[in-house]
Amino acid sequence: VQLVESGGGLVQPGGSLRLSCVASGFAFSEYTMNWYRQAPGKEREYVAGVRNDGGATNYAFSVKGRFTASRDNAKNTVYLQMNALKPEDTAVYYCNIGTDWGKGTLVTVSS
Asked: pLDDT, tens digit, for every residue of 3-27?
């Protein structure tokens, strides 16, 4: 299994970013994919999940209404659209399936 995240960066409060995670090494279209994040000095926390067919999503309370998870099974890619970003969204964001993790992509929200 390989998971490669991209799309992180520095953004001002209120701004937007779209993260991508390209997956390989497993039957991508058969699995729910998840996003987690880990802020400095904090434990890793669940952010969002998208069902294998993209027909259902789930979000942490802290991001609901601001973040949207989606996927393109033809491209083996899962996305996280992040809007109305806040400084407390600053973290390394990870793509996850089961016990497998990507290396993460850093999102910094700061003015």
From this structure: 999 999 999 999 999 999 999 999 9
Query: Are residues 58 and 45 in contact, defined by beta-carbon separation less than 8 angstroms?
Result: no
Compute the radius of gyration of the chain from its Cα atoms: 13
pLDDT for res 78: 98
Burial label for 22, CB within 10 Å (0-12, 13-18, 19+), is: middle
Cα gap 40→45, rounded to integer Å? 12
Average pLDDT, the chain: 97
Burial class (CB in 10 A: 0-12, 13-18, 19+), 31: middle
Tell me the C-alpha distance between 55 and 8, whole Å.
25
Average pLDDT rounded to a whole number, residues 46-50: 98
